[in-house]
Write a structure and sequence with these properties.
7 strands, two-stranded antiparallel sheet, 391 residues, 15 helices, globular, alpha+beta
């Protein structure tokens, strides 16, 4: 008989328990996500920009599981033969880093001056601002150190500048670690998120699309800061007016503007709450699914297609896999390639062929508003063409 089933004799010491310790749900999920990412493949951090894009398309289970597992979607898209066509150039990154260093020079004196001028003009001048040391081991350690330093800054009073603090936010049951450019603690104990961007602010205004993207990204940081604030007693106020700092009129001189992100914060919070839990998505995948970019293209394609996607043209500017998903949607004749607004108007008509068939009167319920509108549009088009053909 095997020793695992042998009974202990009277008086003998008890045999050690050979049953492996049961994994907790969190530990099992981390191991499962690591297996999806691939052996020896480092996890790609889920930043605020990715979270904002994910919140804009909460129905995309594909992006949720790939981001949750830390998959490098740029490498994955290249391995699938549909490389991403967007992203910052090395020159733009270098220029942005140089501008950020200029804004934070001399202990952040210029940055704090801009914060006081645009957000807190009644506060005392920031002559001696504290700049806490936030170094620690690992993202969990840095997150804990940031939370402790924020509490200490509130208790001490005065101005404090947090350079690249680490914040945590739970997304679909998985933690995401976020690193804003800066957080400022005001003398009244309130907190402000600072976003430093390298696009210009000309005559006091910047590209609305870029400002909107920065606002959505800052809203994610505001949500994460609020998670820290509620653990303090009394809870400090997290300001919903963030400071956007940009170069002035194509120069290297910093200027700033206050941006109200209450709307973006509410939308982002609601959309993140709608995300299916990553554990639930992972449990539906076939055994052995892996997204490691060094796998054969056929195997990678099968793994990606095992997770449903919700493609929309807006994905082209926010997701590295957008070109792959667009090709698949076009091949399947899906109406999603026409945009979310058109898709919403078409109701249960999910393919272009369904739409054309309904417009011709070959299929569809005549009482369906979408079908009725299509047939009316087809009739008007035919009438217009017939009138144009008449001499």
């Amino acid at each position: 008989m095997s020793e695992f089933h042998r009974s202990a004799s009277p008086g003998s010491p008890p045999e050690p328990n050979r049953t492996p310790p049961r994994q907790t749900r969190g530990t099992a999920l981390r191991q499962q996500l690591a297996e999806l990412r691939g052996p020896d493949v480092p996890a790609k951090a889920l930043d605020a920009r990715a979270l904002a894009a994910l919140a804009a398309n909460p129905g995309c289970r594909r992006r949720a599981i790939l981001d949750g597992a830390g998959v490098d979607k740029t490498a994955l898209a290249s391995a699938l033969g549909s490389p991403a066509a967007f992203g910052q150039s090395q020159f733009a990154l270098t220029r942005g880093n140089a501008f950020e260093a200029k804004v934070k020079a001399d202990g952040g004196a210029e940055l704090l001056r801009l914060v006081r001028r645009h957000l807190d003009p009644g506060a005392e001048p920031a002559e001696r601002a504290a700049v806490p040391d936030l170094s620690a081991t690992g993202p969990e350690g840095r997150t804990a150190r940031t939370a402790l330093a924020l509490r200490e800054a509130v208790e001490a009073g005065g101005w404090s500048l947090f350079d690249h603090p680490m914040l945590a936010l739970e997304v679909a049951g998985s933690p995401a670690f976020l690193e804003p450019d800066a957080v400022v603690v005001h003398p009244d104990g309130s907190w402000t998120v600072v976003e430093i961007k390298s696009f210009p602010m000309v005559d006091g205004s910047a590209d609305p699309a870029k400002v909107g993207a920065a606002a959505r990204q800052a809203a994610v940081y505001v949500l994460a800061l609020e998670k820290v604030a509620v653990r303090l007693d009394p809870a400090p106020r997290v300001r919903h007016d963030v400071l956007l700092v940009c170069p002035k009129d194509f120069s290297n001189l910093p200027t700033a503007s206050a941006v109200d992100v209450r709307k973006q914060r509410a939308v982002t919070a609601r959309q993140l709450d709608r995300l299916t839990r990553i554990q639930d998505i992972a449990d539906t995948l076939p055994e052995g699914t892996c997204f490691a970019p060094d796998l054969p293209a056929e195997q990678l394609t099968a793994a990606v297609e095992a997770v449903p996607a919700t493609y929309a043209p807006e994905c082209l500017s926010t997701c590295e896999l957008a070109f792959h998903c667009r090709q698949r949607s076009q091949a399947a004749d899906e109406v999603t390639v026409l945009g979310r607004a058109v898709r919403a108007e078409l109701g249960g008509l999910t393919t272009v062929e369904d739409v054309l068939s309904a417009a011709r009167g070959e299929s569809g319920d005549p009482d369906d508003p979408a079908v009725a509108a299509l047939r009316r549009a087809a009739a008007l088009r035919a009438e217009a063409l017939q009138g144009a053909a008449c001499p």
